[in-house]
Amino acid sequence: MTYATYGDFEARPAAAWGAVLSMTLCVALLIAAEFMPVSLLTPMAEGLGATEGQTGQAISISGLFAVLASLLITTLAGQLNRKWVMVGLTALMLASLVLVALAPSFTVLMVARAALGICVGGFWALATAVIMRLVPERDVPRALSLMFGGQAMAAAFAAPLGSYLGGMLGWREVFWLLTPLVAANLVWHVIALPSLPARGRQSLGALTGLLSRPYFRRGLLAAMLSWGSAFTMFTYLRPFLEQVTGVDVTVLSVLLLVLGLAGFIGTWAAGRIKGAHVARLLMLPALVMGGVTLALLLVGGSVLATGALLVVWGAMNTAMSVIWMSWMAQNAGDAAEAAGSLMVAAIQIAILLGAVVGGLLLDGLSISATFLGSGALAAAAILLIGNGQRLLRPAR
Q1: Do 100 and 197 belong to one domain?
Q2: Based on C-alpha coordinates, what's the Rg of the chain?
Q3: What HEC string does 336-373 produce?
Q4: Are 390 and 215 spatial neighbours (Cβ–Cβ below 8 Å)?
Q5: Percentage of the chain modeled with pLDDT above 70
Q6: Which residues constitute the domain of residue 366?
Q7: Would you say residue 141 lies in a domain?
Q8: Residue where a domain terminates, one of 172, 202, 232
Q9: Which uninterrupted H or E stretch holds 9?
Q10: d(CA 248, CA 301)
């Protein structure tokens, strides 16, 4: 029985696609749990006797804990079998959802969201390394695209369903509806994930070792600029659509749904990535998404033109994750868990900073300034990436 290798990570003797599908469902549920409260902000604030601003802070605290968890998970997990680490993180997600649904106060909500942040950071830090051990090397991009299909699924349906069901049933009931799905995913993990023993003891030294590699530092910074650009725009897309495009709530919901559905196109296309071609694709997300953002400033008054551009943006948004994680797998496969930790921390920080910078530009200047700021970050990413060759591990 032969084994394909990726760095020093062995793949399973046969692709464990059932386990990949279990990871895909976990991605969808994690993203739904993380962003569902955005569509339920007002009723959650009313139900907990808090202001919308306070409730928004409780929601965003998950991002802070995700950064911390992503940096510490590989060290804290130590010699634990990675199968049971993933099972434990999924169990913690289940506990977090139950705690949110039962939350009698704002403080309890904060604790529940902090727990969810640990799940988000821990899962994403380990996810690519786990995928690399579930399928042969040639199937890693396809498996990653399948896993990120869960991201597209949640992006397309979580917010609209949350808003609709919250209005019908109440916000607590929305979280209760998620719990049996997470419980089923927990059981699926136990059944489908093979044993994944730790590959040596992980330490913080592995993180600093990766950061000492010039090509990896460049790639990490380029990824941060790419995600920062994307979320500077995306976080404030609704004000743009309301103020510039002039849409009502119904058209706004349709446009957001279109953007989310386009993500499936992106994951399908990204699944066709070939290892030798990843360097050429690294600048594509910043180039396309930055171009769309600037184009919206020119034609954003037209609903049809805006919808067409959002299809392109939504497709590239999910493809971006597959492209950059494929780059990481190919160029830091000998330290995949440490690389995953750094990538997730960098992305989470970029998302937080993108939202802050975009908000400052919006409040201090205008929504156009926010979109121009997004375009500037994309341009910086493109200049840093170039043809992608400086972001590749030198041949041995």
Answers
A1: yes
A2: 20
A3: HHHHHHHHHHHHHHHHHHHHHHHHHHHHHCCHHHHHHH
A4: yes
A5: 85
A6: 204-396
A7: yes
A8: 202
A9: strand 9-10
A10: 13
Same domain, 197 and 209: no
Position 89 in a domain: yes
Report the pLDDT value the prediction gives residue 10, as an integer from 0 to 100: 41
Query: 294 CB contacts (<8 Å, ≥6 apart)?
Result: 371, 372, 375
232-244 pLDDT, tens per residue? 888 777 778 878 8
Output the DSSP codes for 71-87. Answer: HHHHHHHTT--HHHHHH
Residue 5, φ and ψ in degrees, nearest 5: -120, 150
CATH code (residue 182): 1.20.1250.20
Whether residue 2 lies inside any domain: the answer is no
Helices (H), 103-139: 106-134
Highest-scoring range by mean pLDDT, 39-48, 86-95, 218-227, 337-346 = 86-95
- pLDDT tens track for 85-106: 999 999 999 999 999 889 888 8
> 6: alpha, beta or left, given left = phi > 0 and alpha = psi -120 to 50?
beta
Residues 52 and 159 placed together within one structural domain of the fold = yes
Q: Give residue 242's Cα distance to chain centre.
A: 26
Q: How far apart are CA 255 and CA 35, in angstroms?
A: 18
Is 349 domain-assigned?
A: yes
